[in-house]
Structures are given as structure tokens and as C-alpha cells.
Amino acid sequence: MAGDQQHHQQEQEATAGAGPLHLVVFPWLAFGHLIPFLELSKRLAARGHAVTFVSTPRNVSRLPPVPAALSAGVRTVVLPLPAVDGLPEGAESTADVPPDKVDLLKTAFDGLAAPFADFLADACAGGWWRGGEHAVAAFARRPDWIVVDFAHYWICPIAEQHEVACAMFQILTATMVAYFGPRQENADHPRVTVEDFMPMPRWFFPSPSAFLAFRRHEAAWVAAATQVNESDVADFERFWRTEQRCRLLFIRSCPEVEPGRVFPLLAELYRKPVLPTGLLLPDDRRDDDDDDGDHGNGSSSNEAAARSPGALQWLDEQPSGSVLYVALGSEAPLVRAGGSLLPAVPEHDHQEREHESTRQSARDGELVSLQMAQLHRCIQLGLLLATIHFPRHG
């Protein structure tokens, strides 16, 4: 889309004359964060920058591989996650723990501060460089930027000791980041009750209620994020402490999919440059389909769509308001109380038997990957879902 070209131009202008940069990228321990951060890393590497991607060993091993054409520009550094009482052994992401254990994961995550400080000191001293003949030369220089997530309130003080700039990458929409708001706006217009979190806040324009409203159970989840949790730091506090010491704010979005002047509003609210990265859709091309390795111009998703014109053509043929789009997110546990998510897709006998076996063996709280694969096939074939049952909320 046109916005992707604009975003590319903005980055070129921002780095004009600077040469390739060395960026350290460190996401929160959730695959809904890890994968967008990896996609951002690939886009940066495609433009000639060197990216050091930091995470824990098991998370790195579960990420999709970087295309061969970009592998020289993306290196991984693994920091073992400290053990925490009550955190299951081997748990390194939110996908590995039930919701009531996520705060323990944050406690373990905070234990990465010292190992990260050691890594950064080594990288700034030039001791980390282990480049081969094909590695991007910028790896040999000290990091220019650290790209952090919402939870890294302890990174900026470490970075400042080494005079390395920090930028925050938000995987949420620009509208949602505006809804959260900076510390000062929340102090000036405090939200205390769950009901306070249901409409858009006063600092949103032109009519707060016009863009977003949460149901009570949804607003309760946001309100809880303002309270100190088992990690001893509220999620909002993590976000505010980190954001206040970052020089840039990146948003995984683009103006075309956001209301009004939300990006200028964010720049005013947070008092720093706010840049859209685009949607960063994963590229499904194989390495042998990728001649130039340029995944950063936003064309990959368009090309992927062009290779599957049937779904788009089918959607174009449907009457307005007749198609339901369901986005389950990166972690969507399906429970029996919520019913089955089953596409109406013609299948061969052996496929149907395999599908039935999966349905029978599924435990409550599991995401049934085969069902999701069937949903993807359903969308490709242009067929409607037979039935969807959603759990009720109290």
C-alpha cells in the first residue's frame, strides 16, 4: 500500500548518511510480540542494517527461521531465563503458562537485567563480535539503538550507561496506544473504576466515544494492568517507565488503518517522534522464491495475495455485511464450553478421521492447531464457517 512506501521513505531520511546501523531488538516473552519483532528485524536487515535479536533459548528455537538471503544481517543472542518459584520448568513464554502464572514470567524476565547488562557491555566494548565472512559489517560496531517492548523498564538505565539510544516498538494499534496514554495524561485525567476504562479517554479526539468502547469485562482487564501484580510492577508502570526514556516510538500499524490524525496525536501525547512500521505481515515465500531478499518494501503481503487470487475474488463477490471475519490472536485457547470452531470444508475420508481424532483428544485450554489449519483452508477455498460458538462472559 502507499503507506508502506511512505514508511520506507521516512526511514531512509532518518538514516541518510549514517550508513548501516547495529540495532539490538529485544521483545517481551510472548509469541504475539516475538514474531512481530522478528519481522521488524527482517525488514531492517533487508535495508542493510545489522540486527541482534535477543531472547531466551527455547523461544529462539521455536521462531521461524530467517530467510537465507537475510541471515547475514540477523544474529541471535540467547539469555537463559532465571528460575522462579512457581514458574513451570521450561516455561519461557506466555504460551507455556496459564494466565495466572504470567506475572511470574515477568518476574523471571526482570531477572534478565544483569545478563543483558553483561551482553551490552561486551557488545559496546567490541568483545561480542563473532562475524564470519558473510556477516554484515555493522555487527562489528557498538549498538546504535536498542528496540524494546513494553516490559523492559530496566533496560533504558542500562543503555544510558553505555550511551546507547532506546526506541520502543508497540505491537498494538496506534489507537490502543493512544487509549493507554502517557503517565501525565493519566494523572491529569485519572481513571479509577472499571467504568472509567470503558470509553476512550478525554485526550482522544474528536469524540472519544466514536472510536472505541470496551465491554465491562474487557475494561476490567485493562484496569487490572494499572495495579501492582505478583511481579511487583504494574504493566502500565512498565510501559510508562520504558516509554519515558525512549527517544522514538514505533507502532506496528499504518495511517490507512487508523482513525483520523492518530499518529500526530501520539507524537503530541508522548512528546517524541512516532513512526508507523506498517503491518509487518509474515512473508510466506520460500528462500528459493526470494531473489533479492528485500522483504522491507511492504510488497510481500501483496505478492502473497496475488498468488492466491481465489479468496480475494470470492470476498469481492459476497454481498456487503455477509462475511464474518474472526481474529483469534496469537494465543487463543479453545475450551469445550465455547463450542467448536469447525470450517465447512469438504474433506477426504482420512482427513475427516484425523480431524475427528483431534477433536476427541483436545483438552480444555488447548489451541487445536489442526482446526486452525482447517480454518485457513476454508478461507482459501472461499467457504463459510458452519457454526461458531463463543463463550459467554459474565
List low-confidence stretches: 6-17, 286-307, 341-394
| Topology-level CATH name of the largest domain | Rossmann fold
Instruction: Please tell me the overall pLDDT.
Output: 79
CATH architecture of the largest domain: 3-Layer(aba) Sandwich
Task: Tell me the Rg in angstroms.
Answer: 22 Å
Q: Class of the largest domain, according to the CATH hierarchy? A: Alpha Beta
**Overall body shape:** globular
Query: Strand arrangement, largest sheet?
Result: 3-2-1-4-5-6-7
What is the element layout, followed by pairings?
Blueprint: H1 2-14, E1 22-26, H2 31-46, E2 50-55, H3 57-62, E3 74-78, H4 102-110, H5 113-125, E4 145-148, H6 155-161, E5 165-170, H7 174-180, H8 183-188, H9 216-224, H10 235-244, E6 248-251, H11 262-270, E7 274-276, H12 299-307, H13 309-317, E8 342-343, H14 349-361, H15 369-381, E9 385-387
Parallel strand pairs: 1-2, 1-4, 2-3, 4-5, 5-6, 6-7
Antiparallel strand pairs: 8-9
Helix pairs in contact: 7-11
How would you characterize the overall build of this protein?
Helix 11 links the parallel strand 6 and strand 7. This protein folds into two domains: 2-301, Rossmann fold (3-Layer(aba) Sandwich), CATH 3.40.50; 309-387, no CATH class. By secondary structure, the chain is of the alpha/beta class. The strands form two sheets. It has a seven-stranded parallel β-sheet with strand order 3-2-1-4-5-6-7. The protein contains 15 helices and nine strands. Helix 7 runs parallel beside helix 11 (262-270). The model is unreliable at 6-17, 286-307 and 341-394 (pLDDT under 50).
